[in-house]
Amino acid sequence: MKAWHLKHEEWSNEFKVLIESELNQLLEVPVRRGVNLRNETRWKIGGIAEFLIEPSTIGEIQSLVAYFNKNSLPFTFIGATSNILFDSRGISAFLVKIGDRLNSFEVEAQTVTAGAGISVPSLVRRTSELGLAGITHAAGIPGTLGGLVVMNGGTQRKGIGENVNRIWVVDTEGDLTVIEKEDLQFSYRDSILKEKVLAVVTVELSLTSGDRLTLMAEIEEILSERSQKFPQDLPNCGSTFLSDPSMYQLVGPPGRAIEEAGLKGLQKGDAQISELHSNFIVNTGNATDNDVLWLIAKVRREVEKKTGYLMNCEVLHMDQWGNLRPAHEVADQRFVLSQDEIGI
């Protein structure tokens, strides 16, 4: 049944039904077809996903990869979508979501082994309740552990990579392999995993002993501070731009640079640079990926003109075929702004 050489629009409904039937034989939870990503994603942006699959076990992920390879079908892995801008034209690739069905949690002394689908806030709270310290900085990040590891996410200029011992992944051949910390090449908001199509399925963390009450109080303080600083009532993907250490020393964080460039509140379509925090782009209604990408291009050029620094994105963009790229690369490709548009 190798038919991906056909253009996606040439697939017949009968062919899609056949794929759906065969995939469902591999899964505990049925495949979802024709899923509107506006209803599934943190940014509430995206077109129709032809197939969305939520495996319940590592074995199911391995079976899916084997099936896709056998039939030359494109696929990609996603988590809680808290850092992805989806193409508004839709996604033709098979989306495999590593979510809360893969949320195992085991503790031995100060070592925690958890499923990649566990939510970060839940992980932080559960470890803190056990008096295990080291990751409270991530308490307010609305993603999964797997996604956090891929991005080396965190706050307070910390990253989860500091606590990772090793991870287990399913590779593009369907094999379950272990990757040790030294091979993950963690750096600020980055890891080698961003360059690879892998499903992070399990993560081993090394934590330290802490006082339970102190840790829980720290979590509440972080959540309270985030609720005051960051937009909570409109869909967004968190920080849009990366904080460059050299820029931070001379100019400050991205939000300050954007605000000082006079861009706070700037709107394109239904996408807006947040009035509350300028490093957040919010969806005020029916924003498209083009609306967001235009704002990204505008911000990059305007801030560069004023500071000399060209800011890169923390957010990734997924195109129609499931390819992930930093959103600023896609923005630069789609929009070459005129001098009038960037205020020159």
Automatic annotation (TrEMBL):
Domain (FAD-binding PCMH-type) ranges: 44-208
Pathway: Cell wall biogenesis; peptidoglycan biosynthesis
Entry EC number(s): 1.3.1.98
Active site: 189, 239 (proton donor), 314
A GO CC annotation given for this chain: cytosol
Protein location: Cytoplasm
GO biological processes: cell division; cell wall organization; peptidoglycan biosynthetic process; regulation of cell shape
Keyword set includes Cell division: yes
InterPro entries: FAD-bd_PCMH, FAD-bd_PCMH-like_sf, FAD-bd_PCMH_sub1, FAD-bd_PCMH_sub2, MurB, MurB_C, MurB_C_sf, Oxid_FAD_bind_N
Residue stretches spanning the membrane: none
Entry-linked SUPFAM superfamilies: FAD-binding/transporter-associated domain-like (SSF56176), Uridine diphospho-N-Acetylenolpyruvylglucosamine reductase, MurB, C-terminal domain (SSF56194)
Cofactor(s) listed in the protein's UniProt record: FAD
One Pfam match: FAD_binding_4
Keywords, ordered alphabetically: Cell cycle, Cell division, Cell shape, Cell wall biogenesis/degradation, Cytoplasm, FAD, Flavoprotein, NADP, Oxidoreductase, Peptidoglycan synthesis
Catalytic activity: UDP-N-acetyl-alpha-D-muramate + NADP(+) = UDP-N-acetyl-3-O-(1-carboxyvinyl)-alpha-D-glucosamine + NADPH + H(+)
A molecular function (GO) term: UDP-N-acetylmuramate dehydrogenase activity
UniProt similarity note: Belongs to the MurB family.
Function field: Cell wall formation.
Protein name (record): UDP-N-acetylenolpyruvoylglucosamine reductase
